[in-house]
Amino acid sequence: MASKSEGGGKDDINFIKDKFTTREGTYILAHWSEYTKPTRLQTSGSTNTPVRASFINVSGDPSPERICFNIGKELYVYVYKGVKKAADLTKPVDRRVYKATLPTCHDFNKIWVSKESLRLLVGFSHGQIQVTDPMRKEISSDPLKRELNKFFNEEKLIDKSKVTCIKWIPGQPDHFLVSYASGQLYVYNDELPCGPTPPTYQPFKQGDGYSIHTCKTKSTRNPLYRWVIGQGAINEFAFSPCARYLAVVSQDGFLRVFHYDSMELVGSMRSYFGGLLCVCWSPDSKFLVCGGEDDLVTVYSFNEKRVVCRGQGHRSWVSVVAFDPYTSVFSSDNSELRNGTKVQDVQATVANGNQSNHQKPPADLSQTSLQSSGSCVTTYRFGSVGQDTFLCLWDLTEDVIQQPINTRTRTSILLSNPNSVSATLPRCNNVQKTNSLLSSNDISGDGNAHPVGNSVMGNSTHHFATLSLGERKEITEKKEHKRNFSLSSKSSEKNNMLKSNHVKHIDESIKVLGTCSCPRLDEVPLLEPVVCEKISSERLTELVFREDCIVTACQEGIVNTWARPGRVVSDRDQ
Amino acid sequence: MGNNYSHLEKEIGSDQLPANEHYFGLVNFGNTCYCNSVLQALYFCRPFRDRVLQFKQLQKNNKKESLLTCLADLFYSIASQKKKVGTIAPKKFITRLRKEYDLFDNFMQQDAHEFLNYLLNRVSELLQEKQGNKGKINGAENQNKTEPTWVEDLFQGTFTNETRCLTCETVSSKDEDFLDLSVDVEQNTSITHCLRGFSSMETLSDEHKYYCEVCGTKQEAQKRMRVKKLPKILALHLKRFKYMEQLNRFTKLSHRVLFTFELRLFETSDDAYNPDRMYDLVAVVIHIGSTLNRGHYVSIVKSDGFWLLFDDDVVDKIDPSAIEDFYGMSSADMQQKTSETGYILFYQSRE
């Protein structure tokens, strides 16, 4: 890594930082905790598969953390020692090299875990899926001791595009969800076979912009379900911390939120332009943040079904977004979320007390709230990394959250006073219900159920604007919807997909603009990052907030650990 | 060579080939790829092609040859082919171009952007001459005022140059028209960022001080340029060739600059008419190689939902995911790849 050249001053934009300061204090790059290949010299060259990291805690070991990351065709598992001890790169727990296919993403099973055994799920660039145990390698005649090594979609009969995201389903330790560049999402049971023939699907459920299918077989086989969502690749998905909702972001620029069990679409949002690449949930399941090709981070309120604000700071596409649950301060009142997470309402990570350090005006007000636990000055902290090699940290504060959409006077469609957020809120929810009702029944596909349009109609402020637009487009809209449905019915042919893709776009993107799914630029606040630093020479591909550190990874295959303020004893430093 | 075309037909599927579309490679007449790549990109900017073919319809009896008639003949000969794929030799056009413009009258590699600029301005001039003739007939002769032609209608946008005197705080603004925008490139950025750089605030000081009319003297000032009128076709030129004084030559900046299939502009002026216009990428001229004079140009175009690569006489279908190879190179790629970089991007407005 090209680090601090002598000439490069701190203001030089090409200067790679090894520390940065927020209101909590200073984060320091833990040089001793750099994870990469055992031998740095043998670079296999940069590939285009992003380097991602997964963690698992195997309790009962002095160093209980394990880290898994992929670099090119290789997959590594190490003991992760965090900020405390130096990384020992000579002894990986496991190292695998794949031929003709590259690992793209992975996830540890959080239930099936012990000191001796792990269950690691891996997705590949050519569509295959592997479930393996990195702890057990010997091939034994005793079937119980034999290496766990299952493949799914090995013959690429189910999908041959790239796996874009793969995760165990919360609460169902034998089930996992996998998304593909083909725009499809599959539910697998890792106890079931895939079958020797390509699956034949039958429709199970259909809604606006998505459809769900099951396999048409006598005996149960994988995949259990196939979801076809939007147009073009699914880039990432995320389960809400309360485990009830599934958020999916796609190349068509849409975020779609589903109630997972009922498979209803319950919310959606559109990027300003271009694909949405990443998504994450706030720890209380109330907000979602997406990053995309518009170089923006966009905050979506799941409760209010609207875009709350956008953040501008990156100089290129945003590749990963993540909330920092340890620095976020919010009320733990999750009455509406039954299985709400146990995230503490206040986690004053750093009682550093060193307040003279770099203070920004909005920071002052939250500093007090950080210390006085229980007070309800909400501040969510989230971070983002991008292809620009920059890390940004953002504070989502109460005043921004409560700011209503600023309908511009020049659009002159203002009906009710814009201050009545509370008044529009329940209506939004209301509409959401009718909406899902409509979309689930709407299998005929005449394209009337439009969550985007409808949720907007419910909001009195925008009523007239949308109506007039809708009327004008009504006829063409119907036509185009049919094309859209023909696609979701059955066509893995890329050509067809791209064609209808093109048609659909014209309709959708222009209609959504100026609604709470995609406000105009000046209709919602534009956040600035509290931290925006170049921390790598190569594009960044991973960001994980942990209790005592932040973990980042770059395309070159280096996983870095940033110690939170006060987590490094000063003499340990360098 | 015939194999290539059947290959393309097979790849797309001959039944999948759009009914009224023709994919014809252009023969290279010795380093004329700078010309071929731009012509293909323009051919697949549908509004431009339509206007050129319309011109051809109206010009049937006119015998006088110009660069525009040669362009119209070339486009017409592609559009009226019986076969859907093949090769055409743009001989007449190249000959005319070399005759008209000294700089291109040789067998050297030229700058594709310079050619695009020349072509659009020349076509506009020729159209104005025609309009001027009509004007004379009508007796409404006005030499100073140039009537906008369809070239301006398609490509012309306006930016507002706002200058604020730091002494008297007076803001003066001046509108300027453009047919394309040339943006500076930086490593690991996006086209959006490059466009924001174009509009970023610049301080005029020292020898660059600004003459303030209110103060009556040269003063320090802040200047920024924001787009006021967004064109129908937004042509973006990435300034990848930088003159290095120490080396006394142009070097290429192969920086990795991402471009999106969709685009909206961020830095528009407050009085912009259509600030949130949505654009779709329709064509990209790509420069291959490490220097301006010894490289090669190809273009990728979008046609009926799929992407095609035109490399002189060879046409291939490409997967959209392969387009990321043309973003450029980050530091880690430098040793392994040849520099294949997006150079001119053509975005077409969705409305």
From TrEMBL, chain A:
It comes from Magallana gigas. SMART domains: WD40. The keyword DNA damage does not apply. This is WD repeat-containing protein 20. Gene3D superfamilies: YVTN repeat-like/Quinoprotein amine dehydrogenase. Pfam families: WD40 (PF00400). Keywords: Repeat, WD repeat. The lineage of its organism: Eukaryota, Metazoa, Spiralia, Lophotrochozoa, Mollusca.
From TrEMBL, chain B:
Its EC number is 3.4.19.12. CDD domains: Peptidase_C19G. Keywords: Hydrolase, Protease. One of its GO terms (molecular function) is cysteine-type deubiquitinase activity. Pfam families: UCH (PF00443). The keyword Hydrolase applies. It catalyses: Thiol-dependent hydrolysis of ester, thioester, amide, peptide and isopeptide bonds formed by the C-terminal Gly of ubiquitin (a 76-residue protein attached to proteins as an intracellular targeting signal). GO terms for cellular component: cytosol; nucleus. Gene3D superfamilies: Cysteine proteinases. It comes from the Eukaryota. Residues 24-350 form the USP domain. One of its GO terms (biological process) is proteolysis. Belongs to the peptidase C19 family. This is ubiquitinyl hydrolase 1. It comes from Magallana gigas (Pacific oyster).
